[in-house]
Amino acid sequence: MAEIAFRNVCKSYGATVAVKDMTFTVHDNEFFCFFGPPLSGKTTILRLILGLERPDSGEILIDGRPVNGVAPAGRNIAMVFQNLALFPHMTAEENIRFPLVERGERPDRIAARVGEVARKLRIGHILHKPPALLSGGERQRVAIARALVRDPVAYLMDDPISALDARLREEARVELKRIQREAGRTLIYVTHDQEEAMSVADRMAILEEGCLSQIGTPSEIYDRPVSASVACLLGSPVMNILPLTKEGTAAGGAIRLPPVLRPQAAAFIGIRPENLHVLQQDNDEDGSCRVTDVEPLGGTTVVTVDAGGAVLRAVLRGQPDIHIGSRVTIRVDVAHVHFFGSGGEALHQHREGLA
Amino acid sequence: MSAIRLENLVKRYGSFTALRTMDLLIEDGEFMALLGPSGCGKSTTMNMIAGMERPSEGRILFGDRDMTGVPMGRRGVGFVFQNFAIFTHMTVRQNLSYGLRMAKLPQAETERRTLAIAEFLRLTPFLDRRADGLSVNILQRVAIGRSAVMEPAIFLLDEPLSNVDAAFRAVMRAELKQLQRQFRQTMVYVTHDQLEAMTMADRIAVMDHGVLQQVGRPIEVYNDPVNIFVATFIGAPGMNLLKGRPVQTDRGLAVDLGPLGISPPLGSAQACALRAASGEVIYGFRPEQASLAPPGEGIPGSVTFEERIGARSIVHLGEGSTAFRAVFEKDVPLAMGDVAHVLPHPDAVRLFDASTGRVLKG
Amino acid sequence: MTLSDAARRPAVSSVPRPRDEGAALGFRLTLPAQILVLFIAVFPLLMQLYLSLTDWAPLTGTAWPRAWEYWNAGANYVDLLSDRRLWDALARTGLIILICVPVQFLLGLGLALLFVDDFPGKRLAYSILIMPMMVVPAVAGYMFFMLFQSGGPINGLLGSLIGRDLAIAWLSDPVLALVAVMLADIWQWTPLMFLILLAGLVGVPADQMKAAALLGASPWQRFVTIVLPRMRPIIAIALAIRVIEIFKIFDTLYIMTGGGPGSATETISVYIYEVTTQDLVWGYVAAIGLAILIVLSVIAAFAVRRLGESRA
Fold first, then answer.
1. Which of A127, B284, C198, C253 is the most buried (most CB within 10 A)?
2. Contacts of residue A233 in chain B, CB cutoff 8 Å?
3. Which residues are paired to A255 by β-bridges?
4. What value of ipTM does the predicted structure carry?
5. The ABC transporter domain covers which part of the protein (chain A) (predicted)?
């Protein structure tokens, strides 16, 4: 068991509220991701878990045991730093062994532990090499092995791959997820990249200005966001948010929704770009909307449409023959429309995600 | 005239060659992306265009004018640094007007142009703030504005979005495109992010190890990569590459993929290309241009990993040298360990020579 | 936001923190050492203040703690205001500062600018350049004493330049002696100015310099708009150090001229030395010392404030 829980935790720095009344539970063996824009409180949460900060109020529990008064060393939580912080003058094995040697473990215990972790992370064949001779992915594994060798309750990572090239980032995140699956253990992960968060997380928490907005699997949050702002944090291009008139039209009449299908209080609708269909008209006069930008990405094409003054983005499959200036009509499947109230709150009934 | 012509450009640092004989014509008013991994020579090329470094060999021409020996201050290019290089001891206004003041333009003119560019980049509220206290997103716009105010015919940007947070990158991409459309400068944009290059550029120059690999419109580079480097670097994820040998089947020419069995029969163009091949080939297809097929029809692979990113799901199949990926619409009924059969769209298959990595053409 | 950002933020909390307890314990443990340091720094100052209010001198036959027997209630400070020799020495010291500091600054800055970019033999030139600073001032004094003899190498060199024998009596002419003393100081201390300014110049971000060049700024414009503003705190410190140092100029000068001819090169330090060793009026000397300390403190405070301004 390794469960980390916050119960009504608050933390302020002077007048700045960094964490506001936060309650959540991270389960055993989970890849749990905190995601939010800068200054949303992600790093403060990590510091609270590590014990570098104390909550102003509320309780932090590790395996059901309150740890508010426990110093960082007593919490048995490991941190993997962004730059990995491997010692360059030691081999991979010496690096991994380091925390145990520091703790004065018996040599046979150390050897057994290092062997076990190395096997799990599949780095047995590189143990004799210094970090300089390892690839990026191998270094990552060694750093994680060093964190896991102490047998921690959980290990934390603060935006570990943001410094890499875009292509390497895509590989590194898959690698990370694999490592976590193989090695087990709870991994608490912080990132500001929505694609990375959705890719790696078993479950994720969306943070906005120190508040926990939503918690759930990436798909749950993507499909059933609790608010327009959460909806806009996930997905690229971002969700199209349009004001809805009393008559049930949006985008200057280009979108009409029958009254029975929309909640009374709906003030805004949200449409994911992949759910917006753009139909090319043979006759240029027919279309009510005009294409203002086309971005071919190969597998998909992002089309920007001016619909009655509203700017809508649509993701089309493949490489359709659409050009800037084309007249088009837009269609949307009501089942894929998100409704939001005047305060941006979601108006459908899917709120199970909020723990 | 602000076309940029690079002729036989070479740059060496001691015994290390950073750039090997580069020839490139960037048209007047074109948005050209120099794309490649770190150390591919893209920044070196850019620095030589700006005049910050001197080429070891070759010439740089703006229009018909040879600029090779012209010092950087007199080339009239706008340059946005990766770290923005904002003058932190000045206000935003002083930063924006810097070039105009150094050129000793009349005060009224300086004022007018500074305000206009500040308005365009939504910097008006920050004009009298000192630059060292501002957020990265604002600094980035100051960096662009400081060069744009000079109305340069050529605008060079060195990975300007790499320090900007992920959510803001999309906004900045749109803004840069709009800027370029409005002023019609020749824009050269250095990046390692293929998405940035694909979404913004008129044409992309893909570079690797100091060698220009391919130049073309984004969709051309995506559809018809000249070699396996370009094939894997472009696209998210990059192209799947599987080693194999030509084989004749009763349904036509195909590729024997070893442990993965025989590939689906090739289309006529690829079959033609395969006939020209000798020995091993690489069978390539895009993860996005494939669908699930019944057993026996596609390429088999056990699901090792699935990434669900919003509406897309990237499925990783197989291990080691037989690993490949497929991108599906969200709800694909696959679980870890399942064996899936993936059928590439016949038009989307590309073949490469296994020894040279070059694409095979019929 | 990174971990370190969060760490830098002031952490205000009503809950007592282990960190605070640690700080309190640390304070208690280091208290004896802190008291000792305070004592060492403050005691001489208090002693000086005490003596400056008396007519005490070592020859009075009483130990200094009983100097109150010679209490004169600030008469020393009144005398000080009308001490013609003191004011002359002060003016002379001021003149040396006004000439030497700007010259050292300009020379140091010029040299530093040369050393920003690489050139062949840079390391050697650098070593030679900072050598004078490392010469013991007394040795430098004797060196210049020899150089400026009327039959010495300086006259010889100048003579060969203009083609006839020269016998300028450098150190016995009131004006030329002052010039010689200043030349010696410039020779010895320009390197320090050079070192400090070079450190500042190297700290100017290269990308900002390139950005300015790309925006069309000439080298001079770049210097004025980027380099100087960024170097302001460093320049303030360099100037303050040199002003304070020259205010106390003594050893080299005393060996070269002994403050003469007459009192032509008598600076504050030389004057105090003379008064202390010959007139033996220690109470008065203490008063002068304190007055000068106050003047120097004002200069130092000004420099520190400029440093703070440029950070704000």
1. C253
2. 167
3. A250
4. 0.86
5. 4-234
